[in-house]
Write a structure and sequence with these properties.
- The chain is an alpha/beta fold.
- The protein has 17 helices and 14 strands.
- The strands form four sheets. The chain has a seven-stranded parallel beta sheet, sandwiched between helices. Strands 1-3-2 form a three-stranded antiparallel beta sheet. Strands 4-5 form a two-stranded antiparallel sheet.
- The longest helix has 22 residues.
């Protein structure tokens, strides 16, 4: 392997302005560091390493430099991972994902964040900004009928669960449904791989495998090789909103705190009174061995968010064909509803999302301890704070800043109603016991559970 490789774009990002090139070439700039980290993640596609410490060691030897030639932009990759190349030629899908990184990072910074075109403290403006980011990435397809099923689940799962996600994806693919995921390994890769085989059997040649990620998570959940449409959103909240507005249905597999965060986010939105009449098929599923775990999640949702939230999803155990049939029927209802309301097929404008679910949450020790995990809180507010709690645990597990905070100040403290904290403790302990927190290494919890003291009776 040569010490460096020169890469020319073949599709998007063939032409950049001198200003954009200078931004990328400035090694001290925030844009350069962000692009460098995301490029390394893309080049590491297929890696099963989710230890940030180990990734950081390898990453220090890597650099990406940018040159402008008459033909346009050239990337110089210094000490790139060998796995991204075959016979000294970069894999085509990896090349395209590299330039997806440049497209999304530059557009988000220059046209959304720095341009102040949108007030990112305003709910409607956030939704519009996400639309512009997705349109710029060319993942909004107005000519296609509703058929995108988003699959959520853990990156750290055992083989039997991976095979189950692949079988579900296969059944979806046989029914002509496309798949979107968080783009990483495990339950994000399995459905795509299965759908690709299902599409091939049906001679469907335009199958979509949409990967949606964000800079904080991409390093430890590198895009899997099947992703053919990669989008990088600026933060986790915009990533989650992109998922729910693009999807025509969502399948949720067993996972860790990141999957719990996604589920709480989704149910918090669907439980809002303004969304009660909007069809949105949701299935929670897994193989027979995961039944106790999935029913524990079901109990946790019922205890915290109530039976109305439970009615927004169907729990299906060990039946991939039924999952796919349920999704196919649900997507048909979505299509009919969108037609009746003249809503776009490719972006769910009518879904109401409260600002609590849109504003970025910074998981400091102070903000984690201040979360209001109380059964007396309104359900949508409790869902938002529960989502933030699990988001903080994700940060402490795999994100650079969160890991450093836990290293310096110790585990995050989570404090709330005894009943909530007991159920949360049991759920998190089950995730640890089943290896759902990390793929590699012995897991050391980044959180500490503490029940609020109950007031004495008068």
């Amino acid at each position: 392997m040569k010490q460096y490789e020169l890469i020319h774009p073949k599709t998007h990002m063939r032409v950049l302005s001198r200003y954009e090139i200078q931004q990328l070439r400035d090694v001290s700039s925030e844009a350069h560091d962000l692009v460098r980290r995301c490029c390394y993640a893309v080049l590491s596609a297929g890696s099963m390493q989710d230890s940030y410490v180990e990734i950081e060691k390898e990453y220090q030897q890597f650099d990406v430099q940018f040159e402008q030639e008459d033909r346009g932009l050239v990337l110089k990759l210094v000490n790139p991972p060998a796995s991204a190349f075959v016979d000294d030629e970069i894999i085509r899908g990896v090349r395209e994902q590299l330039f997806s990184v440049l497209r999304d990072v530059l557009y988000a910074r220059d046209s959304i964040i720095k341009a102040h075109r949108f007030n990112l403290d305003n709910s409607d403006d956030i939704t519009n900004a996400i639309f512009h980011l997705l349109r710029n990435a060319d993942v909004l397809k107005p000519e296609r009928l509703p058929n995108l099923v988003v699959c959520w689940g853990g990156h750290s799962i055992p083989r039997n669960e991976y095979e189950y996600t692949k079988e579900v994806g296969y059944q979806l693919g046989l029914r002509g449904l496309d798949v979107g995921t968080g783009c990483g390994p495990g339950a994000m890769k399995g459905p795509m791989k299965g759908a690709m085989i299902g599409h091939a059997k049906q001679h469907k040649q335009d199958g979509r495998y949409v990967g949606i990620t964000e800079p904080g998570i991409i390093a430890t959940e590198a895009p899997n090789p099947i992703v053919n449409e990669l989008v990088i959103l600026p933060d986790i909240e915009k990533r989650l909103e992109a998922f729910v507005r693009m999807a025509h249905g969502i399948v949720i597999f067993p996972g860790g705190p990141g999957t719990a965060e996604e589920l709480l986010y989704l149910l918090g939105i669907l439980s809002h009174p303004d969304n009660q009449d909007i069809p949105y098929p949701v299935v929670i599923t897994g193989p027979k061995e995961t039944e106790d775990y999935l029913r524990a999640i079901d109990r946790f949702i019922g205890m915290t968010l109530g039976n109305d939230a439970c009615r927004r999803y169907e729990l299906i155990i060990d039946d991939p064909a039924r999952v796919a049939k349920t999704m196919k029927a649900g997507v048909a209802r979505v299509k009919a509803h969108r037609q009746q309301g003249d809503d776009a097929y490719f972006y769910n404008w009518s879904l109401h999302i409260d600002a609590d679910f849109q504003q970025p949450f910074d998981p400091t020790h102070e903000s984690m301890a201040a979360l209001n995990l109380s059964l007396s809180a309104p359900k949508h507010e409790l869902a938002a704070d529960l989502r933030r709690a699990f988001s903080g645990i994700v940060a402490g597990n795999v994100k650079a800043e969160g890991i450093e905070r836990v290293k310096q100040k110790g585990p995050y403290l989570l404090n709330g109603d005894p009943q909530i904290m007991q159920e949360m403790d049991q759920l998190l302990s089950s995730m640890v016991a089943h290896g759902r927190m990390k793929i590699t290494g012995n897991y050391v919890p980044c959180y500490r559970i503490e029940a609020a003291a109950e007031s004495a009776p008068e």
